[in-house]
Amino acid sequence: MSGPLRGLKVVEMQGIGPAPLAGQFLADLGAEVTLITRASGKADPTDINNRGKRSVALNLKSPEGVEVALALIDRADILIEGFRPGVMERMGLGADTCLSRNSGLIYGRMTGWGQDGPLAQTAGHDINYLGLTGFLNAIGHADRAPAPPLNIGADYGGGTMFLLFGIMAALYERQGSGQGQVIDAAMVDGASALMALIHAMSAGGLWSERREANLLDGGAPFYRSYECADGKFIAVGPLEPQFFAELVRLAGLPDDHRASQMDPRNWAERREGYAALFRQKTRDEWAAIFEGSDACATPVLSWSEAPQHPHLAARGTFVDRDGVTQAAPAPRFSRSEPDAVAAPPAPGADTETVLGQLGYDRERIDSLRAAGILT
C-alpha cells in the first residue's frame, strides 16, 4: 500500500453517509482502514465507499466482540464513527474508554446535529441540516420550493470534509502534544462554515434572502443554466467582465450588456432574452462554439457522459474497476502517488487475518466463530 497516508491506521465503524466516504478518502491515499461491520457477506463491486478497506465482522452485542474491537482500536491512529451521541458509549466503545487505553487516538465523531444541543438525539438527513442553517433556503427557483442539492452540502461538504479536516488538524497537533482527542464534526456546523462568502455578502448588503435574486443563485443572467434546442442544458458563469465580454462576443449577445452586466435591475429581462437565445441551438452546438474560450460556458453533462469528456478523460478523473465507473482518488500528489483503486472487500472477508495480526491463534479464532462473536 502506498500514498501519502501510508502507515496510518484507521478503524471505521460501519455506517452510512459521510463517515464511510471519509474512510474511503483515507484509504484512497494509502491509510490502512479497517471497517468493523455487523455481518459477513458477499463482495459488492458497486460499494465504492468501501474500496481499499479491510473488513472485520463482529458481534458487538457481546463482551468478547467489544474486546476484539478495542484491541483493534488500541493500535489505531484514528477511529471514525457516525452514530447518535451515546451509542458508542453504550457499546463499551466510548471516547473515554478508548482514549484511556490509547491516549494518542484521534476519535472522530460524525453527526448531523453535533454531540450536544437540543437536537443532538434527533434523527435527520442532509435536507434537514441544510434547512436549519439557511443553506437550503438559498437554492432553487424563486417561484418554487427550495431544491435539495443532492446530499452533497451537509453530508459530504459540511460533514465528510470537516471530519477529515478535524482529523488532519488533530494529527498535526498530536506531533507536539503526543495526545489524541475527540473531533465533534457536526454537519450543521460544517454546512454553516461553507457559507462564509454568502454570510459576508449578506452582511455587506450584497445578498438578498429571496431566491434567484442574487449573483450566485441563478438571479444573474450570466450565472445560471439554460435549456438548449435539444432539451439539454448549458452552464453559463462568466462573472468577470473580461469573461462576460467573451460570452457576449461568442453567443452574439448585445454588446451594450457589457457595461451594465452587474446592474440587477436588468437581470430578470435579460434572463428571458438569454433563455430564448440558448434555445436556438443544441447543447453540443453551443459547446463547440465556446470550446477553448474564456466565456465560462460549458455543457451540463449526465453521469454517464461525464467520464467521456476529453478533459476528464485526459486527467483520468474517472477510473473503471470491475466494470464500475467511479472517481479516481483526489487530490493528486507529485511524489507519494497512491496505489490504483482497490476493490471493496466482502463484508467480514479480513476477519481472521486481522485477528491473527492482533495475536489471536487459530484455536481462539475458531472458538470465537463458534460462539457467534465473529459474524
UniProtKB/TrEMBL annotation:
Superkingdom of the organism of origin: Bacteria
InterPro entries attached to this UniProt entry: CoA-transferase_III, CoA-Trfase_fam_III, CoA-Trfase_III_dom3_sf, CoA-Trfase_III_dom_1_sf
Family matches, as Gene3D superfamilies: 3.30.60.110, Crotonobetainyl-coa:carnitine coa-transferase, domain 1, formyl-coa transferase, domain 3
Region listing for Disordered, in residue ranges: 328-353
Pfam families: CoA_transf_3
Molecular function terms, GO-annotated: catalytic activity
Protein name in UniProt: Carnitine dehydratase
